[in-house]
Amino acid sequence: MESREELDLLLKELVKDYAFLVKGFSNPLARQVSRLSAGAEDYRVLKSYIVDLARYANQAYHRDGTDRYMYRAPVLMLFHGDRRAMSYEENAHLVCHHAMLAAVSLGLGSTIIGMVPPIVDRSKLLRERYGIPKGNKVMTSLILGYPRYRYRKSIRRDLKAVRIID
Ligand SMILES: Cc1cc2nc3c(=O)[nH]c(=O)nc-3n(C[C@H](O)[C@H](O)[C@H](O)COP(=O)(O)O)c2cc1C
């Protein structure tokens, strides 16, 4: 997706749908319903992370139109797969990661955006606009753009979970 109007429309839908989630979380009954419908693991992530992030992003949007969902990137790619196909979830993430590597090779910046796919996946309006087939699940998304900053060094990462068994 590359058109500003289309990305602005998506931003409005994100703000609207996340407002609904944030509101739901302030109501104990609605919270219990989402606990049941989301399952224990997703509910924990929603409660400890997503709701706060959405609240903060929506506040920024209402203050001055700031986009804390897609950072006003000029391009967004969505990755989706046929629910009936084997490993469709892994495939979508692999393709997304390859797109990131391709972006780097072209001098572009990219970030995986996990806040967008669940909203698009559940929205009849957005699915129709983007031509997502009925049986497909939107798995992940990527924003792309020309980076404003160039880093000369990256952060040193320790490999936390590599265990060598000899
Ligand atoms: C699956 C996944 C989903 C992500 N979703 C978002 C997002 O919705 N919004 C965002 O600002 N960053 C998102 N990120 C980027 C991370 O916040 C983080 O910047 C990135 O993984 C780099 O990690 P680091 O900060 O540890 O270097 C996502 C990253 C991954 C791997």
UniProtKB/TrEMBL annotation:
GO terms for molecular function: oxidoreductase activity. Transmembrane segments: none annotated. Coiled coil: none annotated. The keyword rRNA processing does not apply. Residues 54-146 form the Nitroreductase domain. Its cofactor is FMN. SUPFAM superfamilies: FMN-dependent nitroreductase-like (SSF55469). Signal peptide: none annotated. InterPro entries: Nitroreductase, Nitroreductase-like. Keywords: Flavoprotein, FMN, Oxidoreductase. Belongs to the nitroreductase family. This is Nitroreductase family protein. It comes from Candidatus Polarisedimenticola svalbardensis.
